[in-house]
Design a protein that fits this description.
alpha+beta, L,D-transpeptidase catalytic domain-like, 5-stranded mixed β-sheet, 4-stranded mixed β-sheet, 3 helices
Length: 163
């Protein structure tokens, strides 16, 4: 049913206007959704982090790289990493930072040093400083400067995505 606008000069089709606004809004949301996942299209080819815009840290196991992100944009990286080897693979998925310890020592591995630890996955999986020449027992090892940067920039409940 057509209604007239306030000056009664021409009809206003509110139903059509609302539908047009809804279609425009849906298009905008779809467009934003595509922009929000654009990072996910990149990957091991070095084109960028393969994680969502919600991630604060992104790990690409295939390329042995990690990034810090802020609002979907790279704020640090890529940096070289070493991760778990055969039988001690680094878990993939979406996680959150649940603990940090600047001077951590592993209980599982005879007190092995794990400086600048940022724990994010079950089983004590963390970002930490470590030798890049040797696979880890599941953790993501960084060189010292990168480990300090990850430790300083990641906070409790920050999202970590491992691909």
């Amino acid at each position: 049913m057509a209604h007239t606008n306030d000056d009664n000069s021409r009809p206003v089709h509110r139903g059509r206007r609302r539908r047009a606004l809804a279609v425009a809004a849906a298009g905008l949301l779809i467009g934003l959704g595509a922009a929000g996942t654009a990072l996910a299209e990149d990957g091991a080819d070095g084109a960028g982090p393969p994680c969502s815009a919600q991630a604060r840290a992104c790990v690409d196991l295939a390329s042995n790289q990690a990034w810090l992100l802020e609002d979907g944009e790279v704020s640090y990286g890529p940096v070289s990493i070493t991760h778990g080897g055969k039988g001690t693979e680094t878990p993939t998925g979406d996680f959150t930072v649940y603990d940090k310890d600047q001077d951590h020592r592993s209980f599982e591995f005879d007190g092995a040093e794990m400086p600048w630890s940022v724990f994010f996955a079950p089983g004590g999986i963390a970002f930490h400083e470590g030798k890049q020449e040797v696979d880890s027992a599941g953790c993501v090892k960084l060189d010292r400067d990168d480990a300090v940067t990850f430790f300083s920039n990641l906070g409790m409940n920050d999202r970590v995505e491992v691909r």
